[in-house]
Structures are given as C-alpha cells and as structure tokens.
C-alpha cells in the first residue's frame, strides 16, 4: 500500500492511497467466499464450489461493488492507522483509479484532530482547598429541620420574620416589561428569613397582611443558577395568600429521635456535621479538578477541528432547550429575552465550547502519554456495582448494551487521568 498525505489545513488531511496487488487478490477471495454462500452452481453443493467456478457464475456488478466496499474501507482504515491520524467524522472518499481486481487508487479527505502541545503539566501546582464545617453551619441545618417539623397556625397579623407565607408572584423584565419564564408561581410556601429565595425578596414581604400586594424590583445575583437570570433586574408583583406562625419543636434528644436513629441531640448534630463535611469535600474536589484542568487547557496549544466545536455547541443548546421546556419557555422567547439572534446566541457559546473540547483533548493526550488504561476486570467490577445500584429492568437493559460498557470505560479512563493530574498538582 502506497500513501501520500496532503495537509490541506491543520485539521484537514487528504490521503491518496494505492493498494498493492496482493491485498487486492486477498480481498477478492474474501468477497467471493462470502458470495459463494448464496450461489447455487450445478453439480456442487451450496458454498462448496471452487472460487474460479463461483467467479464465473456470480453477477459481475455485484462482485465489483462488494469488492470495492471491502477494499475501500480496508485501505482507509489501514492508512489512518499507519499515519497516526485521529479522524473526527466520516471521510469524503473518491475512487480515482480502478482496473477490476488488479489496480485501485482512492483519495480520502477527512477532518482530524490536529497537533496538540501540552504544557509541562507535571510542574503545575495547585493547592487543595481546606474544607471546614463550623457550629454555625450545623445550626443552620438544625434550624431547617425544626422548621420542617414546626406546627403551623394561621394568623391575621402582618407577616414577621420566621413566619411561613403562601404567595402568588409574577416577575417581568424591569426594562421591557416582558414576562420571564420561571419567575412566577402560585400558592408558593415561603419561610421568611430562610434565605431560600432570591436575595432581598423575603425581606420585602415582612409587614404585609393576608391579601396584601406589593410590587418591587430585585436584581438577580451574578452567580444565579439560571444563566438567563444572572444580573437581570426583575420587577415582582407579590400577593400574600396566607400567613402562618411556626411553632418549632424544641431541639433536644426527643427531637433527635424523631429525625433518625439518634439517641441524643449531640448524635444528630455529629451526623449533620459529617454529612456536610462529606458534601463540601466532594464539591471542593470537583471544583479543584475543574480549575486544574482549566489551567492546563488554557496553556495547551491545540488545533481543534471546527466540527468538534460545532457539535459541542449543539449539545449545549440541546440541553438549554430541554431546560426551557421545563420552565415553559420557547426557544424564540428565550432569544428575545436575551436580546440576541440565533446566530449571536450560538457565537456566545463558542468560547466555552472550545474550552470544553480542549479539556477533553488534554485528558486524551495525558492518558496516552502516561499510558493510562482500564482493565477488563476493573470495568467488570464497575458494571457489577452499577447493576446492584439500579434494580429496575429498564436500567438493567441499558447497562447490558455494548455502548454502556464503552461509556463506563471512557468515564473510568477520565477518572484515572484526572487522578494522575491531581497527584502531580498537589504534590509538595
């Protein structure tokens, strides 16, 4: 096999591949043997006729078509492997020369992952965050537990701190007065002072009576969970439907016993602290890994195929559309509220998409350099653990699919690679 590689761009390669006669002859025999299984030749049992006889009796157009399909695929795969290319989509293949069964030349143009130059990631240091849980954190959880267990009593007085109010509310864009999906609700229970709503919202309701209405402006935090509402100024109109005073239970050993298998309040507090510590450490580790990978990706020089970035943007927008469905907002309404066209919205996604693609490529390069692998035994153990966690038949069926095993393998490889990077970054 002769290969000529033309680098059309940093991420586009054109291969000209010429097959040798031995490979062509072998491929022809393979195709004839496959076709012979369904050909009846007088004087021979099906599949037992000599290949020379089969060739004379087979439809020549079918023979050539099957031969070309087999040979083109074989040539392309072998050439990509030999050249060390990493294609990201299907190739554009053309047959440039073909003399039946003794001469074949093809061209294949394909997008590939270009050169990737990693920084010296082994020298990057990043201190691990120290996670602490203090008495105030535990007390907040205890307060929430007692609030949930409180006895509610309807009152006619004005709403006070620690009361639970049932409200109807509607939010509109302060500038355009357009309705905002996800910024309205009805019969919504809210404990004043719980800090469970938008900062500044609960305080506005103190002093209102049942059937009282109030309109006020709130600016959403810059780190608010819904991206569309970050830093957005919203005008809310709120109606108080009901006010209830909460008679919270005393925080003592008897209360602890109602929450779980605890004999004393101290045991309950100890368990709360342990859970808070575990949750915060888990989140801190995720944030640490993300920051570390981001630092390495930022220092990496990578030729990224445009198709990978476009696919990543497609995935991000698909997730965004799904979230809009839950919030009862159409894509067009979302774009209008954001003040952008579909094209402008897509371009806003590009930097983050490029960063995610680069991070993925970094992990792949590091895994290869560090010779990180996942054994079949390790995969089997993980699959067994997952099977034990998910007992419903639908999930069991999903886990039994080959693609599920491939997905789990990929995740485990990522986990091992990140663990290796964390080991370098946190070393003293």
Radius of gyration: 32 Å
CATH architecture of the largest domain: Orthogonal Bundle
CATH topology of the largest domain: Trigger factor, domain 2
Beta-strand segment tally: 11
Question: Structural class of the helices, strands and pairings?
Answer: alpha+beta
Order of helices and strands: EEHHHEEEHEEEEEHHEHHHHHH
Any idea of the CATH class of the largest domain? Answer: Mainly Alpha
Descriptive account of the structure:
There is one protein chain. The chain is α+β, with helices and mostly antiparallel strands and 428 residues long. It folds into 3 domains: 2-112, Alpha-Beta Plaits; 150-247, Chitinase A, domain 3 (Roll), CATH 3.10.50.40; 265-425, Trigger factor, domain 2 (Orthogonal Bundle). Helices cover 48% and strands 20% of the residues. The protein is built from 12 helices and 11 strands. The chain has helices at residues 21-36, 51-57, 60-83, 135-148, 253-259, 265-298, 306-327, 331-338, 342-369, 376-389, 393-399, 402-425, and strands at residues 2-9, 12-18, 92-99, 103-111, 116-117, 151-154, 164-173, 179-191, 213-219, 233-247, 301-302. The strands form 3 sheets. Strands 6, 7, 8, 9 and 10 form a 5-stranded antiparallel beta sheet that branches. Helix 6 packs across helix 9.
